[in-house]
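Think of the structure tokens as a kind of shorthand, similar to the way a musician reads notation: each symbol stands for something richer, in this case the local conformation of the backbone. In the example below we present two proteins back to back. Begin with the first one, reading the sequence and then the tokens, and try to describe in your own words what changes along the chain.
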Amino acid sequence: MVGRESIITCLSAKPLEAVLAEVLQWPPRRVISPLISCLFHGDEKVRWHAVSALGAITATLAENNLEAARTIVRRLMWSLNSESGGIGWGAPEALAEIMAIHGGMAEEYGHILVAYMRPDGCYLDLPALQRGLMWGLGRLAGTRPYVFRGLGVSVYLQPYLDSGDPEVRGLAARAIGLLKVSEAKERLEALKEDPAAFHLYNQGVLTPVAVGSLAGAALKQILNDP
């Protein structure tokens, strides 16, 4: 029997490859709710492994039961709705992870991530949610940047470089570099000396990074664009 505690043990004790191998053997209906609850767990590793696990299990489910996968996506979206009574911690990251893995879900729901940036859309005003959104935009930009075409993502992204939250600034810079937003060069140049640091999650690994280093890397990506 799969219980929340056994799921937490798996997420916290194993490397990502082993986590995904185990999670994908579990019945989705038994693990989706516990995994969503782990998106706001106190342990950073548990939270991020839950993001990866939700992405993998939902993308796999979409291959055989697309409507069930859509239900999971809608549930995550609802958690970000003020009417839900919750906050939606970890939902932007999980949504992006699902889309990064599954092309069909990305084409269907990619515009939602942009809507969460738009003041005239479903704007997320909490810095903690904006961190997740910026990470998610970078995750999807690194795998399926085409889903953002025609959505004005470069315009909506740039103001986040001026955020008072260093993680938001750094992750926005990363996404801007991946999307090669040339209009942001001056802003990125101004951030190159920003010493603020945080942990960046990428495929099971948490790495300490500085905002300035991410801005510098983004600038190089833009300047090297053929």
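Once you have a description of the first chain, move to the second and do the same.
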Amino acid sequence: MSILSIRIYLDFEADESYTPTRITLLAGTGYHDLLPFSSLEFTQPKGWIDVPLEGVGGGPDGNTLRAFLVQVKVVENHQNGKDTHVRGLKIYARDEKAGGGMGGMEDLVRGEIGRKLERSRGIAVRETMLTEPDWMGEPELR
């Protein structure tokens, strides 16, 4: 996958000693070849934190992470806490093979459901651009 952005949500005010102070992120094709690509340190974080991906080497600009596995390793917590709270993790990726529709399902969503909504509520329905999820296609070796 081509990972464009990674964001982590931490909240020191709510979690105190459970909040990480140091996080290391590793990436690779599996557990056997994980390499660290970013290390973050925090004092009292609150909100979404963007993980820097500058210079990871993928894509035309060199700022796209190419990996099948991403590991987020919490190295240290505030006040030497034993447990940790990471309230959210978002990974934004681009699938180069994305495209195509969902066949009959797309027609059903655009047509039948749209007409029912129009009749019942008297509203116009925009067409949705549904794409076929990767797991619905034929298996392939990459």
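Compare your description with these statements about the second chain. DSSP finds two helices and seven strands in the chain.
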